[in-house]
Structure formats: structure tokens, C-alpha cells
Amino acid sequence: MVKGFIEFVRKQGVVGLAVGFILGGAVSKVVTALIEDIVNPILSVILGTTEGIANATWNIGDVAIKWGDFLSVTIDFIILAGVVYLLVHILKLDRLDLKEEK
Fold first, then answer.
1. Helix axes 2-12, 14-34, angle to 10 degrees
2. CA–CA distance from 94 to each of 22, 35, 63 (Å)?
3. pLDDT digit string (tens) for 15-33?
4. Which are the contacts of 71, defined by CB distance < 8 A and separation ≥ 6?
5. Sign of the CA dihedral with 25 first, then 38, 43, and 78 last
6. Is the per-residue pLDDT at 97 higher than 60?
7. Which pLDDT does position 62 carry in this prediction?
8. Nearest-angstrom CA–CA distance, 37 and 75
9. Which residues contact 46 (CB under 8 A, 6 or more apart)?
10. Closest by alpha carbon to 88, among 27, 39, 13, 32?
């Protein structure tokens, strides 16, 4: 039973998946810090908000539309997706499935 489990872990790449998951969380934290500490303050200066882009709102009567937070999260997603794409492309992980099919 133990031998079967070890073979499963080797064949399915479970260890690689776990390492990728952990590294993905770390990359996400770095990108979030980049957005919150560098990109958002620059956007705040450009857009003229004093309390930061994430707190920017558009008030319509008693309702406050928090467009700044949405913009911040969207930029965070775009940069994170770009970083993941570049890492996958640089490490040539996008070609692993093609090698297995041949």
C-alpha cells in the first residue's frame, strides 16, 4: 500500500503541485505588496486622491461606489496573471503536456 502511494505521488506530480501551490502563494503576496505599496500610490497621485486609490469612492446621494478598490484588485489580478504567465513560459512548463503526448 505504501509503495502504491509513493508511485502515485511520483506519477501524478503531487509534490510538484504542492511546491507550486506554496510558491504561488508567495508570489501572490509579493505582487499584492507591489500593488499596494508602489502602484496604488502612483495612481493616487495621478488621479488626485489623497487617501489612496483603494479608498477612492464616487458618491451618489447616500450611496458610495468604491471604484478604487475594484481598480486596485483588477490591477492586482492583471499583474499576478502576467507574472504567472511569464514564470510558466520561462520555466517551459507550458510544454510538459506536449512531451507526455508524444
1. 50
2. 19, 27, 46
3. 777 777 888 888 888 888 8
4. 43, 53, 56
5. negative
6. no
7. 92
8. 13
9. none
10. 27
CA geometry: angle at 60 spanning 58 and 66, to 5°?
30
Sign of CA dihedral 92, 18, 36, 81: positive
Burial class (CB in 10 A: 0-12, 13-18, 19+), 27: middle
Asked if residue 98 has pLDDT above 70, the reply is no
Residues 6+ apart with CB under 8 A from 89: none
> How far, in Å, CA of 18 to CA of 70, rounded?
30
User: Looking at this protein, which amino acid is placed at residue 43?
Assistant: L
